[in-house]
Amino acid sequence: MKRLLPGLILCCVLAAPSAFAQEEGVSYGRGQGWSVLAGDTVGANNTVFSGQLGWPGISLGLLHGANSKLDIGGKFTFNYGQEGLVEVVEPGLKLQAWVRLMLAQTSKVSLAVTFQPGPLFYFHDGDTDVGLALPVALVAGIPVGSALMLNVGLDIPFHVYFGTGGGPVFPLLVGGGMEYFLDRSLAVNFNVRMGPSIFPDSGRRGRSEAYFTLEALFGVAYRF
């Protein structure tokens, strides 16, 4: 028995790193196992605070993992650029629901769709434009090791303004971004989307026009 004991201890010591590495690979092989910008969700029963700053404004949001494939939450945004239009510097507010659904996942890529409906308000020359945002986006996440998650996406942040001179706006934006995980709970990120916003023939402008639209935001996300 005394001869077997040292051998058993040695086997346990040698096996421990291998078991730990396997557990790490299963839980954290894709970034740190969660995301707010890419195709992965935040995870069942997890809650994440997200904040972003840049053009066209500042946003704060909360996401909760309803299950492993569905996140639900809300977002508040203060914009100083009207819906990303680079030619229009006007203040505005948005209050939106936030829904993310993971459609598919493999070891190399994940795919998700997001929907963020809610009212919007922009203020200029003593008047207030009131509208409704109905943005939809499709995003693919590409994990690069345990610390980095890349994304590429197609965003259609459709919105409509009510009242005289209002009407629908059809942005079509493409771009990419990244999330860098400082640890299992904290990530910093950057996202960029750009493309045209199409204003169909309406009383607001009298003819169809397209304007360059840009979203470039730095942010932080913390998982509780």
State the main characteristics.
about 220 residues; mainly beta; Lipocalin; 14-stranded antiparallel β-sheet; 1 helix; about 55% strand; elongated
Topology (SSEs and partners):
Layout: H1 4-28, E1 47-55, E2 57-65, E3 70-79, E4 92-105, E5 110-115, E6 118-124, E7 127-133, E8 136-144, E9 148-156, E10 159-161, E11 167-171, E12 173-181, E13 186-199, E14 209-223
Antiparallel strand pairs: 1-2, 1-14, 2-3, 3-4, 4-5, 4-6, 5-8, 6-7, 7-10, 8-9, 9-12, 10-11, 11-13, 12-13, 13-14
Keywords: Signal
Protein name: Outer membrane protein beta-barrel domain-containing protein
Signal peptide: 1-21
Annotation field: number of helices: 1
Helix fraction by DSSP (H/I, runs of at least 4)? 10-25%
Q: Sheet with the most strands?
A: 14 strands, antiparallel
Q: Count every beta strand, where a strand is a DSSP E run of 2 or more residues.
A: 14
By secondary-structure content and strand pairing, the structural class works out as: mainly beta
The poorly predicted ranges are: 1-28
The structural domain count equals 1
Overview in brief:
By secondary structure, this protein is mainly beta. It is built from one helix and 14 strands. 11% of the residues lie in helices and 56% in strands.
Descriptive notes:
- The chain has 224 residues and is mainly beta.
- The chain has one domain (31-223): Lipocalin, CATH 2.40.128.90.
- The protein has 1 helix and 14 strands, in the order αββββββββββββββ.
- It has one helix spanning 4-28, and strands at 47-55, 57-65, 70-79, 92-105, 110-115, 118-124, 127-133, 136-144, 148-156, 159-161, 167-171, 173-181, 186-199, 209-223.
- Strands 1, 2, 3, 4, 5, 6, 7, 8, 9, 10, 11, 12, 13 and 14 form a 14-stranded antiparallel sheet that branches.
- The model is unreliable at 1-28 (pLDDT under 50).
- This is Outer membrane protein beta-barrel domain-containing protein.
